[in-house]
Amino acid sequence: MEISVGRSLLESNDALAAELSGRFARAGVLALNLISSPGAGKTSLLEHTLRDLSGEFSMAVIEGDLQTDNDARRVAATGALVEQINTGGGCHLDASMILEVIPRFPLRDLDILFIENVGNLVCPVEFNCGEDHKVALLSVAEGDDKPEKYPLLFHLSSVLLLNKIDLLPYVDFDQEKAARFARAANPRLSILPVSCRGEGEGLEAWREWLREAVKAKRAKHAGTSGE
Amino acid sequence: MEISVGRSLLESNDALAAELSGRFARAGVLALNLISSPGAGKTSLLEHTLRDLSGEFSMAVIEGDLQTDNDARRVAATGALVEQINTGGGCHLDASMILEVIPRFPLRDLDILFIENVGNLVCPVEFNCGEDHKVALLSVAEGDDKPEKYPLLFHLSSVLLLNKIDLLPYVDFDQEKAARFARAANPRLSILPVSCRGEGEGLEAWREWLREAVKAKRAKHAGTSGE
Predict the structure, then answer these.
(1) How many A/B residue pairs have CB atoms within 8 Å?
(2) What ipTM goes with this model?
């Protein structure tokens, strides 16, 4: 019975996610769902990205948290448009929550909409929010075994940001092993080693990934909107 | 409707947890539910604890994972009795899963039963497994804001192991701030700064906490089992 309840929840979420995906397609906005454990660096990555690309793209953020608006305030400090969703203890964002805040964004004027999910390596993966790509983050402090132990996120993501590489000298983390496990879950996964501390490290590869993703979305949009 | 499903799941779990709690009480075994984000160090803590206290206590472990038996093999290498539960993608252990493996343990011969939950700072907190105490772990690499953003675990735990303090020089983590947030969620929380890397650091305070908890459980057991 538990399983059938789970399935029907996921099915009704999928229907709303399809509705969202259609809205993002019609607006030509690239939607990215950022997923990781708590403290892997999603907000720090956004702070860098929003500052570094503010001259190139029009971007906005949906911040998901159990409670507090700390992350939303950090993101808003970059000047980006941000909407906070508090799940009230809930372990993931779902499509219905995103649908509720979407009217507050000028979707057609945006290039990228970032959805920062609740910090959780399990539940957010199952609830599609209409995104073009899931973006996985893994901090090297979490251990190189995580892609093997929690494979679904890596299986469904387009890119993995291996974050906090500034800590590599101080932790037992084998990058090749982590990459092998991640690629076993998803052979096409792009893996980008980065650090979001201070000035950051490796972030140009991430910005390049974003530029390509925006370009692909625009090409698709031009194709479907029938110029 | 979603909420009522959630409630009825939690209520039926609570009934099974009460059954488990009764079994642990009759056997006089201290049951501890270890909860943290992925990669905060639960398995490393167990490796140290099982080795260091093998002469003092009879201990066993239930290992919860989405998949793989990597952690169970690490724990078994210490010589401890261990049973693996694979949740098949599920985000937490629940009382029914624990009830299923309990017959495989000689409960009356045990002093401590450790339950290592799935790595997840949210869902495991809501599913009581009949434990005497929840034991929270937080890696300093996760950031000092986590007790404010994920307060329920800290609210319901008896002790917080602030792990990976060997990384303190390399991360931006304010111990006082983390402690303030954690104590706001739970004024009686014991906070123990530790490192489980190499020889370990601060672990004697944890062993002392365990000795006190075993003593309290034995006193309670002697009281309820007559005389």
Answers:
(1) 115
(2) 0.93
